[in-house]
Design a protein that fits this description.
The protein is an alpha+beta fold. Strands 3-2-1-8-7-4 form a six-stranded antiparallel beta sheet. A hairpin with a 2-residue loop joins strand 5 and strand 6. The radius of gyration is 64 Å and the shape is flat.
Length: 625
């Protein structure tokens, strides 16, 4: 209903309620007018209210019935609005259900805008139907994708098997064809094939045998050590490594537009019968799908088996070739052996001759040097006659003894350190202090040499020593003389310091004397730099001494005077001969630019290479006055 109709209902019910109350009140009033009691009264309205108190209720009855009518009208309107809202909701729900059913019929399963509640069985059933259709569609799509992936893997394995069959005698060509096929078939950016090799020492390492669009700066030599980086980890764990969070400095993909990091790295070990033969590393801007990883892992098994077979073939061919070469060599060696036997006979004769010479050399050393042999722990094995004479022992007294009996207690740590170095195969050469049987101190120039057998073990220590005790005593005497000379030089330096102090005191007294002189006195060095400027000179020129000390003396004369006056010219120029000992009248120029005539007397002083000139100046005008 419209709002106007609802208002009319409200007015009608209200008016009818008022009309009902009014009619009832009017009938009661008319009935009371005909009553005997009212007829016996004065027949006024006030008498009626007094005689019939209930008339008060009759008077307000129209208002009560009006209010009741209004109340029931509101109730009725509320019912109407509720029914109207329910009808509107049902209409919208029907439209949504119809639209939902049409979408399901047309296959549009993305529309799920359907209001439902616990009591709406139809909507819930339709939503269940929608969920079933969506699930069925996803399963069909997933089955289709899985079927495509299986077909893709099957076709790839078939093509890959053909590649492995074509290359079975050249590992580098096989590696290039493998990595090229995988990069193209997977539609990725780059890949590398690492083959496991061994060096001469038997250490394992991975060599980048082949690559596609590969630029790894930190592996420019194309070699990765065993267990190094992700390649080594993949081989060690014998499991696939898949990274989607690639470090910035690990690997880059280079194109004509620049360099950037890949989004995913796939590293797969090439293993067969639990033995690793290499590693494949693939990089791409897109992430690898599980079926792609499965494809690479399956091809890795075939690659490992093929590499094993190729390596066996190569090794067999190599062994066959080496066998042929060895057969030829054995024939040559048989002839060489016959010749060597003849040469060995001649060598044996030469060896016997050298043994005789060596025996003579050893006897000469034994007669000229103190020698002994001892074990690595310092226990004596044998000594020569000079050793016994030097240390004043009898042969039976040192039998089974240790070197420590010839060492002072304070030198024991030094001996232990030398023995420790000898045990490590190091030689020792130096001067040592030793003790004789009588407790005398001797000094030896010693050489200890370990004797090593064919197995690298130290069997004994050979010692050759010379007695340098007299030389040491002479050095000590020279050192004492040197110390005494040092003391004498120190005393001489002290005396020189005192003399310099006296000279400095005299210099200070002289400077104070010159400072108090009435005549102007200035001193320059041989370069013409002012070094002294007394108070009278300050008064004469008008300069403070801080303004002139360190400056050239030419600043005290005008340019014309320094150029034309021969006395001043020689005085201010370093290279010219100064006029010394003659009083000259020359003009000077004060601070204010005035020329002043003065009497100039120049004296010279020289100490060693230091040369100075002192000038005594008198103001002519003052003297004349």
């Amino acid at each position: 209903m419209k709002k106007v109709e609802l208002s009319n209902i409200l007015r009608k019910f209200t008016f009818r309620g008022f009309l009902l109350g009014f009619i009832v009140a009017l009938l009661v009033f008319l009935f009371n007018l005909n009553s005997n009691v009212f007829m016996q009264s004065n027949r006024t309205f006030a008498d009626m209210l007094i005689l019939f108190p209930g008339m008060w209720i009759v008077i307000v009855l129209p208002f009560i019935t009006t209010a009741v009518g209004y109340y029931f009208a509101l109730k009725f309107i509320k019912i109407i609005r509720k029914q109207r809202k329910s009808l509107k909701f049902e209409s919208r729900r029907s439209e949504r259900v119809l639209k939902f059913v049409n979408n399901l019929r047309e296959g549009n399963l993305n529309n799920t805008e359907l209001v439902t509640d616990k009591r709406d069985q139809l909507s819930r059933s339709l939503l269940k139907l929608h969920d079933y259709l969506v699930k069925s569609k996803k399963e069909q799509e997933q089955n289709r994708i899985e079927e495509e992936q299986r077909t893709w893997v099957t076709q790839g394995l078939a093509q890959f098997g053909e590649i492995l069959r074509r290359n079975n005698d050249n590992l580098e060509e096989l590696a290039f064809n493998i990595i090229s096929y995988q990069v193209n078939y997977l539609k990725i950016n780059q890949g590398g094939f690492y083959l496991l090799n061994k060096n001469a020492k038997g250490d394992k390492f991975f060599e980048l045998t082949s690559c596609i669009a590969f630029d790894r700066k930190k592996f420019a030599d194309k070699v990765i050590q065993w267990e190094e980086g992700l390649i080594g980890r993949c081989a060690l764990e014998k499991d696939t490594i898949y990274l989607t969070d690639v470090p910035n400095d690990y690997i880059t993909i280079t194109s004509g537009l620049g360099e950037t990091n890949p989004s995913a790295i796939l590293i797969v070990p090439l293993k067969a019968n639990d033995e690793v033969y290499g590693v494949i590393e693939l990089a791409s801007f897109k992430e690898f799908q599980p079926f792609e990883i499965e494809f690479v892992e399956k091809t890795a098994e075939s690659i490992a088996s093929t590499i094993s077979a190729v390596q066996i073939n190569i090794q067999t061919t190599k062994l066959l070739h080496e066998t042929q070469i060895q057969a030829e060599r054995m024939s040559q060696q048989e002839e060489e052996l016959r010749q060597n036997l003849e040469e060995m006979q001649a060598t044996q004769e030469e060896s016997d001759r050298r043994a005789v010479e060596m025996k003579g050399i050893l006897e000469a050393i034994d007669n000229s040097a103190i020698s002994c042999e001892f074990g690595v722990d310092g226990s004596l094995i044998s000594v020569n006659q000079l050793f016994l004479e030097t240390f004043k022992y009898l042969p039976e007294e040192i039998e089974g003894q240790n070197l420590k009996i010839f060492t002072f207690q304070e030198d024991a740590d030094d001996l232990n350190k030398v023995l420790s170095d000898l045990q490590n195969g190091k030689n020792f050469k130096g001067r040592v202090r030793r003790r004789t049987k009588l407790g005398e101190e001797i000094f030896l120039l010693t050489t200890y040499t370990p004797v090593i057998d064919n197995y690298g073990d130290i069997v004994k220590i050979l010692s050759l020593e010379n007695d340098v005790t007299d030389q040491v005593r002479m050095e000590e005497q020279m050192q004492r003389s040197k110390d005494e000379l040092g003391i004498m030089l120190e005393q001489a330096r002290d005396e020189m310091k005192e003399q310099f102090k006296e000279i400095e005191a005299v210099k200070i007294r002289n400077e104070k004397t010159l400072e108090g002189a009435l005549d102007a006195i200035i001193t320059t060095n041989k370069e013409g730099i002012l070094e002294f400027f007394n108070a009278a000179a300050e008064k004469l020129w008008g300069y403070e001494r801080s303004e002139v000390l360190g400056q050239h003396v030419s600043m005290l004369f005008s340019t014309e005077t320094a150029k034309n006056d021969l006395f001043v010219k020689a005085y201010v120029n370093t290279e010219e001969q100064k006029v010394v000992g003659e009083r000259k009248e020359v003009p000077i120029k004060n601070k204010f630019g005035d020329d002043i005539a003065v009497l100039f007397l120049l004296s010279e002083a020289q100490v060693g290479e230091d040369q100075s000139f002192t000038a005594f100046i008198q103001n002519v005008e003052v003297e004349l006055f």
